[in-house]
Amino acid sequence: MARKTKEDAQKTRDQILDAAELVFYGKGFTQATMADIAEAAQLSRGAVYGHYKGKLEVATAMAERVIQQASPFQGQPAHSALENLKHYCLQEVRSYIEPSSIQRVLFFLYVGIDDSPELLQLRYNWEKKRIAQINSLLTQAIAHKELPADVDFDLVSLYCQSVIEGVFSIVYFGSMSERERWQRAEQLCTYSLQRLSMPFSQP
């Protein structure tokens, strides 16, 4: 019976967090209320408060759950490190655009939060994870002599981050068909990352 109770409690928490994704995505943190979350979850407010003290705790649990469950990038052994980097950039752009739990949570963390330190920290954690993945692929590219050993590593890392953000903006805000947007996204990532194999001019 205790096991059943624990399973029921987890099911209720998941129900609350699933509802919170939709509420925070639609209203942002400031405008959302615990009553909104309870209504979306089809639970009483008392049931929601029985698991979470307030909406900050709900938002933090919601974001942590999705970020922890996000599938890590799996590079293809047959591809070069720079080719895998291109696919990683495309995966990141898709995660911000294509409807999913990770898309809703990332939209919330970048657009819908206020200055709550707990939520800002989750956003920073996501960015650190992204930078670590980029740096790992760049390190592989140097080891395989796809990039020169004396490349300005920090500059190249920032450049790759700007590629992700730039392609996202063009694809998300541009008036292109679904097919064209991803065709253009791949072309832009390919063209941008080809630049890494060219020498950087010094100012």
Automatic annotation (TrEMBL):
**Residue ranges annotated for the HTH tetR-type domain, each copy included:** 10-70
InterPro entries for the chain? Homeodomain-like_sf (IPR009057), HTH-type_TetR-like_transc_reg (IPR050109), HTH_TetR (IPR001647), Tet_transcr_reg_TetR-rel_C_sf (IPR036271)
Q: Which PROSITE patterns match?
A: HTH_TETR_2
Q: Which UniProt keywords apply?
A: DNA-binding, Transcription, Transcription regulation
Q: Which residues bind DNA?
A: 33-52
Query: What protein name applies here?
Result: TetR family transcriptional regulator
Its source organism is Methylophilus glucosoxydans
Q: What is the lineage of its organism?
A: Bacteria, Pseudomonadati, Pseudomonadota, Betaproteobacteria, Nitrosomonadales
